[in-house]
Amino acid sequence: MNRLFCVIPCYNEQEVLPETSKRLKEKISDLVNRNLIAPDSRILLVNDGSKDDTWNMIKKLHEEDEVFQGINLSKNMGHQNALLAGLMTAKELCDMAISLDADLQDDINAIDAMVEKFNEGADIVYGVRSKRTTDTFFKRFTAESYYKIVNAMGAHTVYNHADYRLMSRRALFALSEFGEVNLFLRGIVPMIGFNQEVVYYERAERFAGESKYPLKKMLSFAVEGITSLSTKPIKMITGLGFTIFFASILVFIYSLIRHLTGATVDGWTTIVWSVWAIGGLTMMSIGIIGEYIGKIYLETKSRPRFIIESYIGDEEDEEISEYAYKR
In terms of domains, do 149 and 295 share one? Predict the structure, then answer.
């Protein structure tokens, strides 16, 4: 049987951890009893620099039951980096890993279908929302627009898929070959290839705590995804530049004709509009290029994407994963 690791990033999740740990333990026990996964499968909780009692709760869970393991990052590194820290540690220890959020809005019953897909030969199985009936109109509109815009800009993602996915051991090792500092796993994982499948599920409402992805953060995340995986915005700037250049030629010809026919009354409105329009487009273009230059700057520094302060688990796991979390 194959060993499963559930990897769960946690940031200030003390309100949800008691219920989350209970549900996940029941799910792991059920899968073990049905001989779908190995008895030594684990739940790996990654504390992303929480300011509340999250890490102490993780340590207590481990003391009470060995099914729970924990990683404590040295500081808050962000959701994507925390998730990567868990996956890169788990790759040394598991046959497959499933990543999901601590609030368990993603239906954990979909894990059964993911494991079945893995047993049928899939290396990556995406958890995809079948519908968004639990969302408000605004949330549904912005979320669906998010996926459409990101994909239109060249960052190919799986529609209505977040970070709920299963990855095989070899897929995890393939992911470790991607060395980007600017992480956007939703766009990177599809680039790995191998045999990829989809499992559909209905997302529930958050049972406690607050969402860690408000609109402002989602917009920032969208920009991160686009600029990390695609150069299409820069190509659009180039196209816009050529368009304005050809438009200026037409304006020049029009102005010359007006001059030769004696109609030389100045158009104040046209001049003002042109100055503001060109100035705005110039500033926007510089800003977009600046985003890419900033990312190049960060990539050349090659700073660590995460630093693990401590890891609690089985003794043999700690020895095996020593390279993974100290490198």
Answer: no
